[in-house]
Design a protein that fits this description.
- This protein is of the alpha/beta class and 346 residues long.
- Helix 3 crosses helix 6.
- The strands form three sheets. It has a five-stranded mixed β-sheet. Strands 10-11-12-8-13 form a five-stranded parallel β-sheet, sandwiched between helices.
- It has two domains: 133 residues, Hypothetical protein TM1506 (Cytidine Deaminase, domain 2, 3-Layer(aba) Sandwich), CATH 3.40.140.30; 196 residues, 3-Layer(aba) Sandwich (Rossmann fold).
- Helix 3 links the parallel strand 3 and strand 4.
- It contains twelve helices and 13 strands.
Length: 346
């Protein structure tokens, strides 16, 4: 049987998705809706086989499934039922990228699948935004909600400050030095207790949260505080006794582009490299809220862009709640997130 016949052959009873690498069956699932594709995504994080010749057979492929399959690098797709929305989406991607050639074949085609997801994605064209929506609909969001109500502080410019972020939301807090941005982060970590107003993270006072719920990345960390290897710093937030610590560390390093820093001393790293390692530390501890204090301060243009790309990627894939304070307007433009401006210092 040829490779093409393998991926087009009928699905066994009860199976909804099969994926092949060349002629080898590497994954199958009997799950419903898009969950088999999210299961496949988890599987591919640890799959070490060839990825250049991936093909899939799915019971139904709408635009949502097409978005995820293309993202996973699947280049040949066969479906029992496919929508023209999926077909048009793939055709548009093939036209935009001359080196891309994704094939979609189906036993039967319809204009669109009769489901809310297909209707929601219909007019959209941003792959990252569509993917983020799909993970939210599947409840694959790491973050939790953050609510600040009437927060005031006797110093800085924190006067009657209120905002709310849903689980997995992103916020840039903008303002010049001395306006209370770092103070706000200290309130959110629970290191400071507000005299006026209240803060709730996942419905709790920050001081009542489970350890490692929040990960704080301070500005310009002193290397003397971390006379450790890169791997040791990434693993600092992981609970003692956790199984598979090395795997968690290596996965977080890979996710943030730190693999090349393996074996290095933290003290030897550049500012941009330290930021990558710090964000990897938050990922390794599976923090639900990331608080970053001026993450691009004193970085060159290349390192600043790298930090922005990592944060944008996290906001699409893992989707923690991210609050970043900054006066770097270039970072604000690069991320394009909602921004909250804190007033000038008195």
């Amino acid at each position: 049987m040829t490779i093409q016949e393998d991926w087009k052959s009928p699905l066994p009873d009860g199976v909804t998705l099969r994926v092949f690498s060349g002629a080898e069956l590497i994954f199958s699932s009997a799950g419903k809706w898009l969950m088999p594709l999210f299961e496949l995504e988890d599987f591919m994080q640890t799959y070490r086989g060839p990825r250049e010749n991936l093909s899939a057979h799915d019971t139904a492929v709408g635009k949502a499934a097409a978005v995820i399959m293309v993202r996973l690098g699947i280049t040949r797709i066969h479906a029992n039922l496919a929508s023209e929305l999926a077909e048009n989406y793939i055709a548009a991607l093939n036209r935009e990228c001359s080196g891309r050639n994704v094939e979609l074949a189906a036993d039967r085609k319809v204009p669109e699948l009769m489901c809310a997801t297909e209707e929601q994605l219909g007019p959209m064209d941003d792959p990252d935004e569509m993917y983020r929506i799909l993970r939210q609909r599947a409840k694959l969001v790491r973050g939790v909600d953050v609510v600040v109500e009437h927060l005031s502080c006797p110093f800085g410019s924190l006067h009657d400050l209120s905002f709310a972020l849903p689980a997995g939301g992103n916020l840039l807090v903008v303002g010049e030095n001395g306006t209370g941005k770092t103070t706000l982060l200290r309130f959110l970590t629970g290191n400071l207790q507000p005299e006026y107003g209240q803060i709730r993270i996942d419905g709790r006072n920050p001081r009542a949260l489970k350890p490692r719920t929040v990960c704080y990345v301070p500005q310009q960390q002193d290397s003397a505080l971390f006379p450790l290897s890169v791997e040791e710093v990434v693993g600092l937030g992981i609970k003692q006794g956790t199984r598979g610590v090395r795997e968690l560390v290596l996965r977080a390093m890979e996710r943030t582009g730190c693999t090349a820093l393996h074996g290095r001393s933290y003290t030897s790293l550049s500012g941009g490299e330290k930021q990558k390692v710090s964000i990897a530390r938050c990922l390794a501890q599976e923090a639900k809220v990331l608080l970053l204090d001026e993450p691009t301060s004193a970085l060159d243009d290349g390192a600043r862009l790298m930090v922005a790309e990592i944060l944008r990627s996290l906001s699409v894939r893992e989707i923690p709640t991210i609050i970043t304070v900054t006066h770097d307007m270039e970072l604000v433009k690069q991320l394009g997130w909602n921004a909250l401006t804190i007033g000038e210092a008195a």
